[in-house]
Amino acid sequence: MAVGQVRTRVVHRLLLTASLAVGTLASFVPVAAQAAPLPAAAPRSIACIPGEATAADRAIADQLRPLMNGRRLGSAVSGRAIACARIIVARVKARDLPERAAVIAMTTAIAESTLKNHRVAHDHDSLGLFQQRPSQGWGSTAELTDPAYATDAFLKAMMRKFPGGGWMTGGIGAICQHVQTSAYPGAYSPEAHDAALIVSRLWSGGSSAVTGSAPPAVTDSGSPAATPVSPTTPTASPTPTGPFQRVTATAETEIGTLTGHHELLMADWDGDSHDDLMVVNGAGLATGKTEVRILNGTRDFTSLSLITATAIEATDERHDYTAADWNGDGRPDLVAVQKTGTDSGKVEVRIADGDSFRDLILDVTTSLPVDDRAQFAMVDWNADGRLDLVAVRTFGTASGKVEVQVLDGAANLQRELLPAIVTAEPVQDGMQVQVTDWNRDKRPDVVLVRKPATAEGKTELHVLDGAAKLSRTLVKARTLLGLADERYAVLVTDASGDKRPDMVVVQKTGTANGRAHVWVLGG
């Protein structure tokens, strides 16, 4: 064996012996003397409220999850995210800013952080819900990880960059980008839908269904009367009889008060044989387009089934809306009728496909001159399988009577289906109109919701028989409802499922809890 080999083996043995000795020695070192384990890494984000999310926030996340479709948060929304969102909404309301400001802030926070309150910088020194940077003057680390401070900082920047309320119009994504000056300007718009959904749910707090209360009476000035009308007060019969004298159900909806240009419709959107409440917003907060929210009729309108922008551009008080299945696919489509202010000088009709409301399936200029005296509906008037456009003039007619005109759907609304009908009903400004098959004879009837002559009076429902060319009155009923002013929408549908039309009253504004409220008066 060579000398070099002997030396190598000796060295190897010495090293092995030393390592064993060290290992043996280490095994006898007292536990207290051993090195402490490395601490766990601090979480990259912290909760917006102590104790993580509440049960209520988790429940809201569960309700919204199936409706969310954004790229960043979407169906991953959690109770913890809702807890953060709640603070954003609270700070907007504390500044007396409208709901649109909350949608802008929420869109930004979703795009920037997916509603996580980041305490560790992800990009440069960006922190918190809005990924604001201390080095850019937004605030200190402690301030920017305080959701209330961060929201206030965003709102201040928004109002500074959009003086005079410029943020009230225009695309949500563009506004967010102008405030944030992000390297990814296209990141915001895809989150606006989810932001609007969350804000809508949080804006007025929780909701619950109740039964048995009656709609309040309203004074001549439009303010609530001191004593609400109910079946047990002296102003109503102790044992109410006849249609629309009894409250069969009430509910506080999932949406806040409906200010601005909103229209309420009833239609069975989800095909479950219960009419749903469709809320049409002429200029959506998130998109600037006409938007639709649908409240589920099987759940007493307390559950939101859909919120979406439609293919119809922003609409206003020059428009009427109705829900009708234009393309025969079993889903009610959204019909927007522009009755004044058109370039053509004619009434124009646009229809968004009810499957998603994202596709425009009709955009037509009719043969009817513009007319702000009319309220419009779409029904199959002559039973030819095509929807016709019905115009009901409720004021300003030469005859002094309610007049009805019908355009033929088979002719693409380019000709009258029959001569204008002059009814026996006197005109009344502010009258509400629906066209529906009241008596199930497969002929559309005209329902007139007439205001009482005095503040102490009651709203009346008059139904004109379509089979008799509106010359006969099917129903003339004095209802439990007092003066139905502009705060109320009155709709007719079989809400109870007994095959008899009920009267659905929606108080859009002025409720005690700030949420739209629904009463059903049994027919």
TrEMBL record:
Region called Disordered, residue ranges: 209-244
Signal peptide range in chain numbering: 1-35
Stored Pfam families: FG-GAP_3 (PF13517)
Entry annotated with the keyword Signal: yes
UniProt entry tagged with the keyword Methyltransferase: no
Keyword terms, alphabetized: Signal
InterPro entries membership: FG-GAP, Integrin_alpha_N
Name assigned to this protein: VCBS repeat-containing protein
UniProt lineage: Bacteria, Bacillati, Actinomycetota, Actinomycetes, Micromonosporales
